[in-house]
Structure formats: C-alpha cells, structure tokens
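User: Teach me something about this protein's shape.
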Amino acid sequence: MARDRSTPKQARPKVSRRGFLAAAAVTGAATAVASPQATATSASSASVRPRVPSALPPTMRVAAAETAAPNELPRIGGVAGSDFMVDVIKTLDIKYMPSNPASSFRGLHESLIDYGGNKMPEFLTCTHEESAAGMAHGYFKAAGKPLMTLCHGTVGLQHATMAIYNAWCDRVPMIVVGGNDLDAAHRPPGVPTFHSAQDINAIVRDYTKWDDTPVSLQHFAQSFVRAYKIATTPPYGPVAISLDAGLQQEPVTQNGEKLYIPRYVPTSPPQGDTGAVKEAARLLANAQNPVIVVDRAARTENGMRLVVQLAEALQAAVVDQGGRMNFPTTHYLRRAPTAVNNADVIIGMELSDYWGTVNSYTDNGEHGIGVNTSKIKPGTKLISISSVDLNTKSNYQDLQRFQTIDVQMAADAEATLPALIEAVKAAISSDRKAAIEKRGEAARKASAEAKERARQAAALAWDASPVSTARLVMETFAQIKDLDWSLVASSGNVSNWPRRLWPMEKHYHWLGASGGYGVGYGAPASVGAALGNRDLGRFSVSIQSDGDLMYAPGVLWTAARHNIPLLAVMHNNRGYHQEVMHVQRLSNFRNRVASLGKDMGPIGTSIQNPDIEYHKLAESMGWWAKGPIKDPADLGPALKLAVAAVKSGQPALLNVWTQPR
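Assistant: First, the predicted structure itself:
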C-alpha cells in the first residue's frame, strides 16, 4: 500500500533483543490472567502506545551479506555442454519452447536465452507443464511444425503426462525433454534427488513413439535429430529425451573426437502396397453405394484436396469424423455418420475407431451390460488405410476394438491417395460412369435437405436464457465470418453446431479435438494454436468450456504475457454435463432419484454455488473480458467488442451462461 508522503514519519522505539523478548513474555503471562475490564483498558492504552517492531534491524554482518556484491563465482573452463545442445536444436527450425522453468534443465535454459539469444526457439513461460505440452499440441495443428517443451525431472513430467497422452492419441508430434540428475554420487541431496529417477522416460514410454537418455554430447546430437525425425514421420507422435543435468553443465570435452551435428533429412511417409491399392480401387469403382470415412486423413491442405478428388471421382458420400479438417462442410457429398448403414463398400482413412464406425454400442443395456449391434449390411467390404497400424504400443487402449478388414494398408492415407485416385479413375468402366453421375445428383438433393434440417434445429430455443449452444455458435460466427478465421478448439459439447452450420472450407477452419479426450486440452491447445495462427495472420477463436478451463487456467497468463491474440467464447453450462447424464442414467436404471443437493445436476457434477466468474479470472491475467452474459440479446454486441480487442492484439474472453448442450 502506498504511503502518504505528507504524513510525518513517527520515530520507532529502540528496543534491544533481550528487552523485546522479556516484554513479550511478561505481556503474554499477564494476558493469560487478565480480567475483561483489564483487557479492555489494556486495549485502549495499546492504541496510543508506540508499536513494538515485528523485526529487529539487521546486524552489520547481515546487512553486508544482503547488500554487498557477491563473491566471485568459479568459472567453468571452456564451452558449456548445453551451448552445443543449443547448436543442435537450432538446426531443426523449432520456433518456440513453452515450458515451466526448473533446476534440472537450468544449464540448457541459460544457454537457450543467453547463448542462443532466446530465438529459435523462444522460451514461452508457462505456469504448468500440462499447459506447456498442450500449447505444443495446438501449435502443431495450426502451424504444421512441432515444438519442444522442457519438463522438470519426475514431478514436471508427471504434470505433463495427460497432455502428452492427448498428443499421442491425436497423432501429433512434440519433443519432450525431461531434466534429470542421473549421478547419485554428485547430485545435490534433498529436493533434486526426490525429483530424479533412474529412468524418467518410463513415465511416458507407453504413449511416446521413441525415447532415449543421452550420456554424451555427441549422443545428444544424434538422439535429438533422431527424435525429431521419428516424431515427424507418420504416424506422428510425441518423443521423449531424458537430459542429464551434469551433461548440460560440464564443459565440452572432445575425447579425441570432434563434435558434429547430424543433418536432418525428412523420412518419406509410408505408402500403400500397389496391389492393395488396385484391389481397393476395383472395389470402390464397382460399388453401388461406396462411402468414404475420414478422421485424420488430411495432414495438410493438400490432403484435404485429395480427399475431395477421390470423393468426386466416385461421387461417394463422405463421413468426416473431425479428427482434422478433412472435407469441406459445404460440399454436397458430405454426409452424417449414418451413411455407412446402406454402404456396400466402405473405405476408412486414418480412423481412430474403425470398429465404432461400423458397429454401435448401447451403454447400460439389458441387465446393465453394454449391447453391441452392427451398423452395416452383411457382406459390406471394408478397406482401411492407416499409418497407426505401424504403432506397436499395447498398454493404453487407443487402438480401440479389433475390426476385421478386407483390404488393409499399413500406410499414410495422404501419401497413398494420389495412387488410389489414379487407380480408381482407371478402374471405372464406361458403363459405370452414368450410374456414378446419377449418384451425384441424388447427393446434391440430400445435402440441401440436410442443411435445411440443421438450420431448423438450430432455431429451437433461439431466445432462451441461458443461451442455447446453437445461438452461441452462430452469434460468434456472425462476428468473424469476414475474417480469415480458425476454430482452434471446441471443448465441451455444443452439439457439433460449428461443423453443422459454419462454412468450413479451408484446412485450418477446424483443427480437431483433443485425441485422448483428456479434459483440460481446450485452453492450452487453443493458446498454442493461436500462437501459430498469429504468425500466419489468422484470427483464432475457441469455444471454451468451463470445466476444461479450470484444469490449468494459468495458460491465460501465458497468452497475455506473450501477446497471443485469441477469442475465447465460454460455453459455461456450470457443470460436467457428460457426468450429469451418466449419473442420471444410472439412477434411472436403478429406479432411484438422483440426489441434487443445492445444484442443478446430481451431487458432484455441478460447477456452481459459488458460480465462477471466468471474466474476472481472465481480467486478472491480462485479458479483455466481459460477463456473465445470460441474455442472448446481449451476446452479439459483446462479441463485437471482444473481436475488436483481439484484432488489436489482445486475448479476449466472454463468459456466456449456456444451456447444457
């Protein structure tokens, strides 16, 4: 608190240490036996008595220790090992490094900012390792380039694990470097030893593509380039390197060898076998009702174009499961997931769950056991192109249930598509062309009808308060439609309205979901993606759910600190609605009434009483923010102000109270 300089400063009493302690002891004893009247009198006199100081002035020795220049520290001889590590890192065009600072990688940290000039990569200060890894995840999907993140020993890597798992399931590359003190004979006792392990990579080995623990600087150079190469070869995925603190801090010693940095050469993605491609083309060309299902087929803008070319060559329905922006939402061949029901040939490309694509599962069926049923007709031929077949990890169940496939290619879909398109065109006979053209005419009519049904559904409860999710989404689009926009995340469930109603035609209009469905992805991934979009001149918007934001809200500060513009529109339904339905459904199944307590949903599923004021939380971390918005009539004007703030370079958050979904 600022002191009023016009008020004369009272002289403080000079009390010796012994006198102070004696007075305190006497006062304490007297207080223990004092009557109420005596206590009141004492309190009255205390108000005018000079205040006893809470701390004594420092001695001359203490004052000198606190203010004098420190003694000269010993210098290392030669070049620090971490300087060479920076030279290696700089060859790989890594632009940013979101991280939380820590002692186990202090050598590399110092070299990056002082020797490396804090450029390529630039250190982005994060308040949580999960946020740092989440930012790297989102950045890749916007910019197409991986980032690295530093994690502190055992505890830092444990913080980052959920975000790394999301990236693994979402097939996103990132380089995770964990600091570690390996040498028990030389590492400091206490905290650094608690934070060390024989093998910190074991924490994430089940959901990283590759890991290593370099024991020399040359080993680091080889491993880091190898890690980058493996991470960026389909199927993409995170990699991990355990970095010894001593290796960072010790000076470079040649040991008779001159250190060198291996040259990075990208690996060509795997392509489908020629025979399998021709067989797939034959089945598709002769099908009466072929259906294309895509999840992460389009790694790049060109991948999206290739999916369109294949669909138009066959006039086949396309089901886009949304792991990436695979197919334009405005295209007449786009269909709902039910399109597989009448298919005679289905080709799935980079699907997360082929079994779930062609089968249905009813939770809490008869006797409380799930019930499986097939969605497709008997005899339907199934084709798969997926690089994930090359992964061999087994502990975590991201491969989903096993599905028998008729033609299966362990290959990258985008790399295989050019050959498949040519093979399909060659396999289409003259007598099939008329039937294929007629199929396209029917598709145009069905597409127009589906769009009209979506618009009618969105109009329901348009003026409701709290705001309907359809209105939340469409009021947002009305304010950004003329910008070069990118929907970087949509956490929570807004009934898929953006992909049902927004005209998504560019590969960055939608970046996909979290992959592993780990709550807490939306906020850091949207900040990371907004960073990538900032450098590319795009406007970033996210639909930010309330529960997701509360996992690691410190990423809001990182966005403000590093001038990352982002429009976050809150889907604040004040609860974990998925769990609301789970508990309610089980209560119904067991013929019980769900206990609500004082909340809207079953006990343990609501985020209310008190209601979190997300706009104030964002403001406290440097964002433009407004809310809570409960009246839908107030939403449009507030969004207009928020968009203006983001266009000026500031992150902005609107706290909107919404319907559950």
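Now, about its shape. The first strand starts at residue 96 and ends at 99. The chain has four domains: 17-67, 81-249, 274-391+400-446, 460-574+611-656. If you'd like, I can walk through any region in more detail.
User: That's plenty for now, thanks!
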